[in-house]
Design brief:
Blueprint: H1 4-14, E1 19-20, H2 23-30, E2 42-44, H3 49-62, E3 66-69, E4 88-91, E5 99-102, E6 107-111, H4 116-123, E7 128-129, H5 140-146, H6 153-156, E8 163-169, E9 177-180, E10 206-213, E11 215-216, E12 220-228, H7 234-245, E13 249-256, H8 257-266, E14 282-290, H9 301-313, E15 320-326, H10 328-343, E16 347-354, H11 360-374, E17 378-380, E18 383-385, E19 390-397, H12 405-422, H13 438-444, H14 447-460
Helix pairs in contact: 1-3, 7-9, 8-10
Amino acid sequence: MIGGRHKGALVEILGDKGVVEDSAGMAGYESGARYDQGRAALVLRPQTTAEVSACVGYCVREGIPFVPQSGNTGLVSGSTPDAGGAQIVLSLDRMTRLFELDADNRSLHVDAGMRLSDINGRLARSGLFFPIDLGADPCIGGMLATNTGGSRFLRYGDVRKNTLGLKVVLADEAGTIVDLMSGLRKNNTGVDWKQLFVGTSGAFGIVTECALNLERLPRQVSTAYLVPRAGAAVMPLLRMMEERLGSYLSAFEGMSRNAIGAALDHVPSLRNPFQNGAVPDYVILAEISRSWAPRADEQPLDGVLETVLADIWEEDGAPLADAFVGPAHEMWALRHALSEGVTHAGRLVAFDLSFRRADVMAFRDWMRVELPRQFSGVDIFDFGHIGDGGVHFNLVAGKTSPADAVFEQRLRDWVYSAAVDRFGGSFSAEHGIGRKNQAYYDRYTQQKNKDLAAGLKRLTSPGNLGSVSFG
């Protein structure tokens, strides 16, 4: 527990509004997006980098453990406190003051507490956006800490690719502020230190400000649902579309029948777009886009997509069983509803996996055969970013499955072993390392890499920071 002396000192730094200590006020910071539940000693809510520095320095000097928290939308218990009640939550949710747009440079300097929807809502009037598309609405600090990818990775890359600079507070006794801010896209003058803090779950320091690369907002978009003839036809289909569409292709998202059905069941406003309501076994949402307004002398994008699909259909052994072009807002509404629908489908055990692109459907097809043999009563509700090898491999345990932690642990061990050992994949494609993934980091990471990470942690942030141990 945090004594009165510590509370008083932290209130002096942040003011009364910057410290939350009542149970009702702390509840939202103690509960995560998916079954996470912990207990915080206090919640600190700084507004500036200087205030973060003062809080962090105080906590380190006094030996107080603390967990940085951004939008609290993570799924691996990386930003919630543990059950012990001794950890402070350091929330960035009031860090929303900075918003400095450089339209000429196509860059944005922003506080880490800004939500993605707020960033893109304000950028829209300038015809720009931060090109990470997600079903959730995280804050940018958490997106940097986990190196979020999203549905348009195929076209724009991940957060790492779109980060130009950072400001970071280290967990040392001084709360050292490291200024790595820059609007430069090319700077080959030494180590690119900002990358140390992207995708490492806040273990080496707390990102408080960032400089982001922006892209032109698409002015033309066309989408289609594609039904492959079989799992083995998905990769040939993707290659054919990349060959014919090049950089126009901005998304290639896979959706299983179970995941689509869960979304349609949970969100009544969604329209079932499939003939007679019969959802295919697997559907690809493909998107192509242009960043300029339509021109009189060029083929409309719907026509481009229809022409390409017709061309693919005429190929020998065509990989398509069906396809239709439709309204982008309706097609994306279904895609974005998948996660929420699956969450409400039953007792969910979720995995965030990635593979070489050619192995995505091979893993899925293998699992459809082997999972029922190993775990009866468990159904697959998968969807994911086929274009970049990512799979949200969601399993829903039925009423006949044991409802205990031992069963879930055995299921997780088996799935991760298949993904990593058998198919050479990753146990965490986008969600980072939190308490839920710690054991698998320990199991699958080479000792030399752990030693290097432990050395970096001692060098940058020796204090008791976060929920992840990289060493």
